[in-house]
Amino acid sequence: MYDFDAGDLSLDFANTKNWHASAAPEEYLNSYADLLEWGGKAGLVSPESANRLNQLALERPDETNSTYNLSIQVREAIFRIFSHRYAGEPIPEADLALLNSVVRQAMSHLKLTLQGNEFQWELEPEIEGANLILWSVARAAAALLTSDKVLRVRECEDDRGCGYLFIDQSKNHSRRWCSMESCGNRAKARRHYSRVQAS
Asked: How many domains in the chain?
């Protein structure tokens, strides 16, 4: 169900709502447990941590529901930021403010570590679970937005509103659809039908 082929963690998270730009999107993250499951598949949450946090959800449902709701708000903000940027539309200020607030939280829990001869940022080891998921996703979105790769972020151009976000890694940077097997083939078939009708 979850797809991790977008080329960036933040885009993978945005794609947890299928047909995101359509009138009837399909939600993949329907609960805190789903959020933890996605985090596990993304390599952010260990099975042991997920078990502990699912138990926490039973004991403190208001707290974990609040975390879940914030994660969905951040996901929607990330989707709109990249979608608007690709379409050449103004970035919603409220979405950027929300992303910035989560990035600031994440940065306050980072520390510099030395790996071989290279320094890198890492979250403190006691950070886990939903916070780790949310902060890692927000940091990934910020890193992508401030990198050259942002110029290659695309949104599937299927006219039904697929909304799949991805980094175009094709040689000539001309990828337009989430995949040729689905939306791409449909677009080809539609163009062929139009040519036949016009002839």
From this structure: 1
pTM comes to 0.89
pLDDT digits (tens, 9 = 90+) for 77-125: 999 999 999 999 999 999 999 999 999 999 998 899 998 999 988 888 7
| String of DSSP letters for 64-79 | HHHHHHHHHHHHHHHH
Which token pair is 175? 């990828």
CATH of residue 109's domain is: 1.10.3300.10
Residues facing 27 on adjacent strands: 17
SS3 87: helix
88, 156 contact by CB (below 8 A)? no
Alpha-carbon span 139 to 145, nearest angstrom: 10
Q: Say if CB 45 and CB 133 are below 8 A apart.
A: yes
Residue 2 located in a structural domain? no
Please tell me whether residue 9 adopts helix, strand or coil conformation.
helix
Per-residue pLDDT reduced to its tens digit, 57-75: 899 999 899 999 999 999 9
